[in-house]
């Protein structure tokens, strides 16, 4: 009879025993465990997350030759080893759970073809954690689709992605060895899946939920039901469609409140975790408090904001603006693509559609301890750093412009190069300068997302070029300096190239630095999990950005898979990382309770 493996046993083990206990975690590569044992602190690993991070760091610090050998130690999917039944027990279990042992002849043939193409292109087998983000197994269709997509990646990208998938495989294996299922993370993942069944999109797997559509209202009803089941004392939908749940303090509903949550609308063909993850992590954590019969010295108010993305109407942060008292009355008169005014859409959804009622939603900030938000990162940084959680230092301030450069359209063959007034090359020069200027300035970003030559022709020097600028930085002063330098450079380019310029500012948003006391709570929560602290700014806007206008706020980022892609059906994270987010959120709640007894 085997003694159950636990962290205490691992921490007490000498190196040979430690390596033996972790046998099979990394395929045919005991050196990973050997080096992780050498990395551990004197008191041993604090948590499963701590151990996993040390294992991952051991691989990251290895030579490229060692990393390549680790990749090549893994078998092909539905390959010769599977047919010959020579896989390790762990690989056999994983490929079986994903249904690869039950492929149709067509599926098996396609996988063999893909294996050959992939190995021929990259020189190593295709690596995929086939048990997926939930741990229960991807479908064969999902596996083949991922195979086909990644076949076209670059060598560097695929090398890194192969290693990240190896770490995910190890995470699943080790979680089971230690019998530590991510129960809360699995619940959040399941809720996200169930929520994604409400969509306006017609294509399978596509998710579109815009303000007050039938899918949007179904999401609101579903969230309210989950909140009631979780044990919230008060649950309702407010005058703009926000779903609000209140879990009372030990002293009753009149106590100070901590505000948290995020948005449940999506972009068109968006991801399942953007916004929604932050709502459901909070709901799952409150559910645990309710099940344990625990109350805190303050109330917890969780808000599912009805709108953040600005997809149906040209009004972003509509839900959180109502709470900050900055809801613009003119928004009610805006019309959607079908000509339906916002106030009419509200009334059709059972909301009053009247500004006087919306004004009443503004929160009395004296009653709040602040706002905290959990959010999927929507970028590649945490994924590349092999870290499940990151501390947000600031939500970037931004400035957007639409511009047009006017030169002289002329014959491409007869106009000498030194006599041209080329509008397109002027904008191209500006784009390259903006890229270099942002690169030289830590955490600033600059994007020319639109670049158009109206009525362009292959044999005509462009006389006009339209473009956009999106400039962002963690601090307003940093953003302003970026804007000033790029505008000054545009003037220089225009003078030298003898072209005219028109530049229109279309949007300016202030940066939202995290409140130091709340950020410190997130930091201690992450450290309690045995994870190193990693700080990063948010390049995207969030509801926390609006709440920042009236109360202190701080955010926690959760790692995204697939290179951190977001606003895309490929957006993903794992139930294990969701579990850590729940544990960090719970830790923050209890720290706050100690500070506000």
From TrEMBL:
One of its GO terms (biological process) is urate catabolic process. It comes from Sphaerotilus hippei. Residues 396-495 form the Peptidase M20 dimerisation domain. Homodimer. The keyword Metal-binding applies. Transmembrane segments: none annotated. Belongs to the peptidase M20 family. Its cofactor is Mn(2+). Residues 11-174 form the Oxo-4-hydroxy-4-carboxy-5-ureidoimidazoline decarboxylase domain. This is N-carbamoyl-L-amino-acid hydrolase. InterPro entries: Amidase_Cbmase, Bact_exopeptidase_dim_dom, OHCU_decarboxylase, OHCU_decarboxylase-1, OHCU_decarboxylase_sf, Peptidase_M20, Peptidase_M20_dimer. It comes from the Bacteria. GO terms for molecular function: hydrolase activity, acting on carbon-nitrogen (but not peptide) bonds, in linear amidines; metal ion binding. Keywords: Hydrolase, Manganese, Metal-binding, Purine metabolism.
């Amino acid at each position: 009879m085997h003694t159950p493996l636990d962290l205490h046993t691992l921490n007490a083990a000498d190196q040979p025993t430690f390596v033996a206990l972790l046998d099979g975690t990394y395929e045919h590569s005991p050196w990973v465990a050997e080096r992780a044992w050498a990395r551990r602190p004197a008191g041993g690993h604090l948590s499963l997350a701590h151990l996993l991070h040390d294992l991952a760091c051991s691989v990251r610090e290895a030579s490229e030759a060692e990393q390549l050998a680790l990749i090549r130690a893994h078998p092909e999917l539905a390959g010769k080893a599977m047919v010959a039944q020579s896989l390790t027990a762990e690989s056999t279990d994983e490929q079986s759970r994903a249904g690869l042992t039950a492929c149709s002849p067509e599926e098996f043939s396609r996988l063999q073809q893909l294996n050959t193409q992939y190995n021929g292109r990259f020189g190593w087998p295709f690596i995929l954690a086939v048990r997926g983000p939930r741990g229960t197994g991807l479908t064969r269709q999902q596996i083949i689709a991922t195979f086909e997509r990644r076949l076209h990646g670059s060598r560097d990208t695929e090398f890194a992605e192969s290693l990240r998938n190896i770490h995910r495989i190890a995470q699943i294996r080790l979680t089971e060895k230690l019998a530590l299922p991510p129960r809360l993370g699995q619940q959040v993942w399941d809720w996200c899946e169930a929520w994604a069944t409400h969509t306006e999109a017609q294509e399978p797997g596509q998710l579109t939920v815009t303000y007050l559509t039938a899918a949007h209202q179904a999401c609101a009803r579903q969230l309210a039901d989950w909140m009631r089941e979780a044990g919230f004392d008060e649950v309702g939908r407010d005058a703009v469609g926000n779903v609000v749940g209140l879990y009372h303090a030990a002293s009753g509903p009149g106590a100070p409140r901590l505000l948290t949550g995020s948005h449940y609308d999506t972009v068109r063909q968006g991801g399942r975790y953007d916004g929604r993850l932050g709502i459901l992590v909070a709901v799952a954590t409150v559910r645990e408090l309710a099940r344990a019969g625990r109350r805190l010295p303050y109330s917890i108010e969780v808000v599912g904001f009805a709108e953040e993305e600005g997809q149906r109407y040209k009004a972003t942060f509509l839900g959180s603006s109502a709470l900050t008292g900055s809801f613009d009355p003119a928004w009610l008169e805006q019309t959607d693509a079908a000509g339906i005014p916002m106030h009419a859409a509200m009334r059709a959804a059972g909301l009053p559609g009247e500004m006087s009622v919306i004004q009443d939603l503004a929160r009395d900030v004296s009653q709040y301890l602040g706002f905290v938000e959990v959010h999927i990162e929507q970028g590649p940084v945490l994924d590349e750093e092999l870290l499940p959680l990151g501390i947000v230092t600031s939500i970037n301030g931004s400035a957007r412009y639409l511009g047009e450069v006017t030169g002289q359209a002329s014959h491409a063959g007869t106009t000498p190069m030194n006599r041209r007034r080329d509008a397109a090359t002027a904008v191209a020069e500006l784009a390259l300068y903006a890229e270099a200027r942002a690169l030289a300035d830590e955490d600033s970003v600059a994007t020319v997302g639109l670049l158009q030559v109206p009525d362009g022709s292959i044999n005509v020097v462009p006389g006009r070029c339209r473009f956009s600028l999106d400039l962002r930085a963690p601090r307003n002063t940093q953003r302003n300096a970026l804007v000033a330098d790029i505008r000054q450079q545009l003037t220089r380019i225009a003078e030298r190239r003898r072209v005219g310029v028109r530049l229109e500012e279309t949007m300016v948003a202030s940066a939202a630095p995290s409140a130091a006391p709340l950020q410190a709570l997130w930091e201690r929560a992450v450290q309690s999990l045995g994870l190193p602290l990693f700080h990063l700014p948010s390049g995207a806007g969030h509801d926390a950005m609006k709440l920042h206008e009236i109360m202190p706020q701080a955010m926690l980022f959760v790692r995204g898979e697939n290179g951190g892609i977001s606003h895309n059906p490929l957006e993903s994270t794992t139930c294990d990382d969701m579990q850590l987010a729940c544990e960090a959120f719970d830790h923050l709640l209890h720290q706050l309770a100690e500070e506000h007894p």
